[in-house]
């Protein structure tokens, strides 16, 4: 029997602690009969209500995944439209431009496929059954490094990066915001290390340890909020 469990944490960056700014990152997970998933979002620091935007992004993905639960084939363009539409509804009556946030997700709907998606910066990484890592990250080669895509009324399908892989070939997925991703020199090693260290733990213990890791992040003077979420497969044997 196969089960999927999730764990993660989000911490306020040192820069925001000093200024008294709310953590603008958010993460969420869902586990239902129709599917399992995780979401991470980073509210754009220049926007006054980006913390509301990141919370809304996590709910928007869950609602969009639920709406797609009976689809035999995933229409990614429609999925991204649903996420955006849900998000716009959830942030009302605030102006969307004041709530802009990135959106990273991974979910399964019971049809044998893991769906990965990413709008904006950060990292989406999946550990395959053979230990190899496949990842999505933002390509900033064509623009300024401090400009990132985010949820807004004008976002379109081409702004998203996405991938799918067979559920049986996926051992775990890790999502993180740029407060973590930008510091990584060995992405694959970091992803495998976090999964291996926390996967055997109960979710509440894994949450606590990841929180401690992020609170004690080793990169000096890194002031950004930091968030990690993981979704792991567990094989349960009877008896």
Describe the protein.
With 239 residues, this protein is of the alpha+beta class. 29% of the residues lie in helices and 31% in strands. The chain has helices at residues 14-19, 50-67, 76-91, 178-181, 187-198, 203-215; strands spanning 2-11, 25-32, 35-42, 103-108, 113-119, 123-128, 133-137, 161-166, 170-176, 226-235. A five-stranded antiparallel sheet has the order 1-10-9-6-7. The protein has a five-stranded antiparallel sheet with strand order 2-3-4-5-8, covered by helices on one side. The longest helix is centred in the first third of the chain and has 18 residues, at 50-67.
Distance between the termini: 12 Å
Structural class: alpha+beta
**What is the succession of H and E elements?**
EHEEHHEEEEEEHHHE
> Which quaternary structure do these chains form?
single chain
User: How many strands appear in the DSSP assignment?
Assistant: 10
- Give the integer mean of the pLDDT values: 91
Gyration radius, in Å: 17 Å
The low-confidence parts are 141-146
Total number of helices: 6
Sheet with most strands: strand arrangement = 1-10-9-6-7
The global form is: globular
User: Main sheet, how many strands, which sense, barrel?
Assistant: 5 strands, antiparallel
Range of helix content:
25-40%
Report the portion of residues in β strands.
Answer: 25-35%
What is the topology?
Elements: E1 2-11, H1 14-19, E2 25-32, E3 35-42, H2 50-67, H3 76-91, E4 103-108, E5 113-119, E6 123-128, E7 133-137, E8 161-166, E9 170-176, H4 178-181, H5 187-198, H6 203-215, E10 226-235
Antiparallel strand pairs: 1-10, 2-3, 3-4, 4-5, 5-8, 6-7, 6-9, 9-10
